[in-house]
Specification:
Layout: E1 11-14, E2 17-20, H1 33-50, H2 55-58, E3 69-72, E4 75-78, E5 83-89, H3 92-111, E6 122-131, E7 134-142, E8 144-145
Antiparallel strand pairs: 1-2, 3-4, 4-8, 5-7, 6-7
């Protein structure tokens, strides 16, 4: 079965009518639209994984570049962007530690480990409520790095 130029290259003449050529191909030679999509997605993912990391990813800044920074006391801090953490525990110390861990975990996820040190953060605040055995604490501060 030959393709004729009167039809589009993907079409074939049969009984003087154009029909899709893939219907006449053996199953092993057919490439459906879903396979094309999957191969295309795979190629895009490969290309992205082969690309060099961004400057922010290289220096551990993550998304920190989307916020304004200020330098003070030998460290660099977010100018006006705060992160919060919440934790619970049976004592105030346990609840505070859990809140600080939550703050650090989220900050590390968003900006990288260098920004996730509570001790370096600025404008800290914390509040706790509850009674012994069931304490809840909230912390807030601006992430900083050296």
């Amino acid at each position: 079965m030959k393709l004729l130029t009167a039809c589009l290259p993907v079409l074939q003449i049969r009984n003087h009518k154009c029909k899709f050529a893939s219907y006449n191909l053996p199953a092993a030679e057919r490439v459906g639209p879903m396979k094309r999509v999957i191969v295309g997605i795979g190629l895009v993912m490969f290309a992205l994984s082969a690309a060099p990391p961004s400057v922010a990813a290289q220096d551990g800044a993550g998304l920190a570049g989307i916020h304004a920074w200020v330098k003070a006391a030998g460290k660099t801090c977010m100018a006006d962007h705060f992160h919060d953490g919440q934790g619970t525990g049976s004592t105030k110390a346990q609840a505070q530690a859990a809140a600080v861990r939550a703050w650090a975990d989220f900050t590390a996820w968003e900006y990288g480990g260098r920004w996730a040190r509570w001790q370096l953060s600025a404008s800290k605040s914390e509040s706790c409520t509850g009674s012994v055995g069931n304490i809840s604490c909230n912390v807030s501060s601006r992430p900083c790095t050296h």
